[in-house]
Amino acid sequence: MNKPQILVVEDDMAVGNLIATTLETQNYQYHRAKNGAGAVMDALSYRPDVVLLDLGLPDMDGVEVIRKIRAWSNMPIIVVSARSEDTDKVAALDAGADDYLTKPFSVEELLARLRVALRRVRYDSGKTSEEAATYENGALKIDYAAGCAYRGGAEIHLTPIEYKLLCLLAKNTGKVLTHNFILKEVWGSASASDTPSLRVFMATLRKKLEADPSHPQYIQTHIGVGYRMLRQKPECGRDG
Questions:
Q1: How far apart are CA 150 and CA 166, in angstroms?
Q2: Is 240 within the bounds of a domain?
């Protein structure tokens, strides 16, 4: 199997060196860019599996880099930034970033986020048109053609809104979806006044989907930002 290719976009030499050393220890191949223009060109030239992107670049804001890459590619982009405000996270995720890691970060967390992104790459590349008609994630199965969802073989009775929410999260497994993005995709418009309704629908969906809604396995909340569908390990058996 080819080694994953990572594009590291970071103008801080110390942070860039830390990330590079971390990638080397895990046998990842990487290329470094120190500004936004270089990042866009390298993304085009090297077609990396994942982009690790700082937002505070010397020539352009990292959010603009995300928009430029998203104009032609769906490659996973993980933001690694000192900006910790929810508004900054929402802006980056709405522009198309897959995940957001705040500096200072632990090496273990960086590698965990990277593994999630690479699993999505492998899952997306391994899908066939036949497989795309259904979705499986642990005990969860969605039959898109029939418009039905199942957990452990038993059908989950969902309202139309709950089903649309579940499908949206499933089709973006591993990616943080902001409140605004979900509202636009499911309701057709995004307004802050609609966010409480989204929370209510998400709570009812969790009750039907999760074995223990207080400790969710599937739908992860990012407070003030949005939600993410987590990838589960394949079931070895119905009781496994």
A1: 11
A2: no
- Three-state DSSP at 18 gives helix
Spatial CA neighbour of 169 closest among 201, 125, 128: 201
- For the segment 98-115, what is each residue's pLDDT rounded down to a tens digit? 999 999 999 999 999 999
Residue numbers in the chain where pLDDT is lower than 70: 1, 123-132, 190, 192-193, 234-240
Q: In terms of residue numbers, what domain contains 146?
A: 129-229
Please write the tens of the pLDDT for every residue from 134-169.
899 999 999 988 899 999 999 999 999 999 999 999
- Element (H or E) spanning 6, and its range? strand 5-9
Query: Is residue 108 a part of any domain in this protein?
Result: yes
Residue whose pair of structure tokens reads 């990292």 in the numeric block: 62
Residue 64 and residue 30 share a domain: yes
147: DSSP letter: T
CATH for 220? 1.10.10.10
Domains of the chain: total: 2
Q: How many residues does the chain have?
A: 240
> Which residue, chain included where needed, has tokens 């198309």?
96
Q: Which of 157, 158, 133, 159 is nearest to 146 (CA)?
A: 133
The verdict on whether omega for the bond into residue 104 sits within 30 degrees of 0, i.e. cis, is yes
Contact 219, 169 (CB under 8 A): yes
User: Token pair of 206, please?
Assistant: 């969790």
